[in-house]
């Protein structure tokens, strides 16, 4: 037996040197447009029971150039429910000769603790080799883990980034008798196969081979709609004694409700305080706003990654005592405060993030990373971001807005949509008074009102930056070649569609260009849009104009001219209409004053690839209109 064990270990180590890892073995077609090539990627996920599984990932990557260095590392997370049993690695030169094996000194082990993660049992092992002086080179990694949080099964994405080619990859899932696998295939050339095993279980296998490097086109759909991948999920699971099913959104909602039920008790003294706070409020929305302000005044956000894989909340009475909590705890605490005031509210699981794709609505699974609160109010519904220290009640922004979320009810869960902010909600309304000198210099008084998504960055700057940093932030945002920021101020206007008013005083050098008796003045001072670079090759992907393209901007600029100057010619009004939006600009003259008025309304959405030339033409016309100059001549 000892000899057999020794032989198995020896074969495992010898495997590093027995495969051909010469860079010349990579087909030329896979090197095109690639910084690295996945030579081999084999993932095996073996489910032993509803509460335990093992995972083995063997990967080999050839790095072709400096831009591919980031692919030559391995990062593995773990916690008390996930154990790393083995982490091996090897480095090879261009000829496939072994340079070195991974040593302990090459592996960093650190906590994911940050300044807002007060309690966190999650850790990371990061393995990498020193930067290589020559290219290409190859790295090989072997990772084996034991998983005891089977709410989650792995997602297979062997070709997960741009400029990464794939030579060969397999994904194998071994399921025991009595447990079923749920999966969703995306962008696969060939579906996977399922084979019954002698013991009555099933083995599922997916394969990919010879995939050229991807390059995402500008404004294309999310990566998950373009890269090959397989989502896997359980049907039944058991985490630390808590059993659950994942056959429907109802199942997931019921599990979360049961897991966190009975954790909403608050001290009687606090209950009386809430009743006193809301006694004059006769509407649900009024009570909600009072309690939400109380929450912001008396608690702070701290991430707590503990408790049934980070999914069970801290009790409300503990939050009341400590004055802090994570998204689960603060949401649960707010729900308890509202309950004390007679207001019904429900948790809402969501996949949050400014750049996060919406969850897969047709594949019930634990796709969430955040939780907010939903307060039904007759025909209206209020959504509360309970981790925000300053946001107004009911406003979601693009962090949690316009996406599916799972409403948690005692009988289970179902999907609803969070608020979508239309173009009329996301406005920039600007008025500018410019006094121009004969030398072309100017002073400008600028007042801008930002609403909805357009005010988000300004609200964050108001609350997260000091005065000097706010000034530096503004200097980077103002697109004028030479100017001084003399004064600035902000005023907030809370509401379901919040607003920020910005006041600026600018001293602009050579705003207008002097040539003899002529003065050349660009009319669009602060809001000019650039053109869009055309594609060299025909467009393949759909055109995706996200929430950033649902907005309305209006500018009204009054120019006070120096004495003796008059327009040399008249500029006709401009109107540009398209399926993507509408643009107008016009100029009026009144003695030595001119007024430039510009308005643009954009419509986000998804358009076919064939619409891209029209998009380029639309943006080109806008850019040309925004660059217009008016010439003034000085009279004798």
Can you walk me through this structure?
- The protein has 636 residues and is of the alpha+beta class.
- The protein contains 11 helices and 39 strands.
- Helix 5 packs across helix 7 and helix 6 packs across helix 7 (327-340).
- The longest helix is centred in the middle third of the chain and has 15 residues, at 284-298.
- The chain is globular.
Features:
636 residues, 8-stranded mixed sheet, globular
Strand order of the largest sheet: 5-4-9-2-1-11-14-13
Global geometry: globular
Task: Please give the number of β-strands.
Answer: 39
Distance between the termini: 109 Å
Could you tell me the mean pLDDT? 93
Low-confidence stretches: 1-14
Summarize the entry for a quick read:
This protein is of the alpha+beta class and 636 residues long. Helices cover 18% and strands 40% of the residues. The radius of gyration is 30 Å and the shape is globular.
Topology:
Layout: H1 2-14, H2 28-31, E1 36-49, E2 52-63, E3 73-78, E4 82-92, E5 98-101, E6 107-111, E7 117-120, E8 123-128, E9 137-147, E10 155-156, E11 164-175, E12 181-186, E13 193-196, E14 202-211, E15 229-234, E16 236-239, E17 242-245, H3 249-260, H4 268-278, H5 284-298, E18 300-301, E19 303-305, H6 316-322, E20 324-325, H7 327-340, E21 346-350, E22 370-377, E23 380-384, H8 397-400, E24 404-409, E25 412-417, E26 427-436, E27 442-451, H9 456-464, H10 467-477, E28 483-493, E29 499-508, E30 513-515, E31 518-522, E32 543-545, E33 551-560, E34 565-567, E35 574-578, E36 581-590, E37 593-602, E38 605-607, H11 612-626, E39 629-634
Parallel strand pairs: 1-11, 7-19, 18-20, 26-33
Antiparallel strand pairs: 1-2, 2-9, 3-8, 4-5, 4-9, 6-8, 10-15, 11-14, 12-15, 13-14, 16-17, 21-22, 21-24, 22-23, 24-25, 26-27, 27-29, 28-29, 30-31, 31-39, 32-38, 33-37, 34-39, 35-36, 36-37
Helix pairs in contact: 5-7, 6-7
């Amino acid at each position: 037996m000892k000899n057999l064990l020794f032989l198995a270990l020896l074969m495992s180590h010898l495997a590093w040197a027995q495969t051909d890892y010469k860079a010349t073995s990579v087909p030329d077609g896979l090197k095109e447009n690639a910084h690295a090539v996945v030579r081999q990627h084999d993932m095996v996920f073996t489910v032993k029971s509803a509460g335990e599984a093992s995972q083995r990932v063997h990967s080999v990557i050839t790095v072709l150039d400096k831009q591919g260095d980031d692919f030559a590392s391995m990062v593995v997370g773990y916690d008390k429910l996930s154990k790393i049993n083995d982490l091996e690695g090897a480095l090879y030169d261009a000829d496939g000769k072994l340079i070195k094996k991974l040593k302990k000194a090459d592996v960093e082990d650190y906590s994911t603790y940050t300044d807002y993660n007060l309690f966190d049992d999650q850790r990371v092992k990061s393995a990498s080799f020193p930067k290589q002086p020559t290219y290409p080179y190859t790295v090989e990694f072997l990772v084996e883990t034991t998983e005891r949080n089977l709410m989650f099964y792995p997602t297979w994405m062997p070709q997960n980034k741009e400029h990464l080619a794939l030579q060969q990859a397999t994904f194998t899932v071994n399921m025991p008798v009595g447990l079923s696998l749920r999966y969703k295939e995306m962008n696969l050339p060939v579906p996977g196969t399922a084979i019954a095993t002698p013991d009555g279980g099933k083995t599922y296998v997916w394969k990919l081979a010879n995939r050229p490097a991807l390059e995402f086109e500008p404004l294309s759909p999310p990566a998950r709609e373009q890269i090959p991948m397989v989502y896997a999920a359980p049907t039944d699971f058991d985490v630390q004694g808590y059993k659950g099913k994942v056959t429907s959104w109802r199942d997931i909602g019921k599990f979360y409700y049961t897991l966190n039920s009975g954790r909403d008790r608050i001290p009687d003294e606090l209950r009386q305080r809430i009743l006193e706070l809301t006694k004059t409020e006769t509407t649900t929305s009024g009570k909600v706003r009072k309690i939400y302000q109380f929450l912001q005044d008396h608690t702070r956000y701290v991430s707590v990654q503990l408790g049934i894989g980070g999914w069970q909340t801290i009790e409300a009475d503990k939050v009341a005592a400590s004055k802090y909590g994570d998204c689960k705890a603060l949401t649960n605490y707010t729900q308890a405060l509202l309950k004390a005031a007679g207001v019904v509210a429900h948790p809402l699981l969501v996949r949050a993030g400014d750049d996060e794709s919406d969850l897969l609505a047709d594949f019930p699974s634990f796709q969430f990373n955040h939780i907010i609160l939903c307060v039904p109010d007759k025909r209206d519904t209020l959504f509360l971001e309970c981790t925000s220290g300053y946001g107004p009640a009911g406003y979601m922004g693009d962090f949690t807005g316009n996406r599916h979320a799972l409403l948690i009810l005692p009988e289970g869960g179902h999907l609803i949509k969070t608020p979508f902010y239309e173009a009329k909600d996301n406005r920039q309304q600007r008025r500018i008074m410019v006094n121009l000198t004969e030398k072309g210099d100017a002073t400008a008084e600028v007042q801008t009102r930002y609403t909805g998504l357009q005010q988000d960055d300004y609200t964050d700057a108001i609350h997260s930056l000091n005065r000097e940093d706010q000034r530096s932030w503004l200097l980077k945002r103002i697109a004028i070649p030479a100017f001084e920021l003399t004064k600035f101020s902000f005023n907030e206007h809370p509401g379901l569609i919040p607003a920020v008013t910005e006041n600026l005083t600018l001293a602009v050098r050579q705003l207008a260009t002097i040539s003899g008796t002529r003065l050349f003045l660009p009319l669009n001072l602060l809001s000019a849009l650039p053109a869009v670079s055309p594609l060299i090759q025909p467009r393949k992907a759909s055109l995706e104009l996200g929430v950033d393209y649902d907005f309305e901007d209006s500018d009204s600029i009054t120019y006070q001219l120096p004495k003796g100057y008059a327009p040399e010619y008249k500029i006709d009004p401009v109107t540009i209409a398209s399926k993507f939006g509408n643009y107008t600009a016009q100029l009026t003259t009144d003695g030595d004053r001119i007024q430039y008025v510009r308005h643009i309304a954009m419509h986000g959405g998804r358009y076919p690839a064939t619409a891209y030339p029209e998009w380029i033409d639309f943006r080109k016309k806008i850019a040309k209109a925004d660059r217009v100059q008016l010439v003034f001549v000085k009279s004798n």
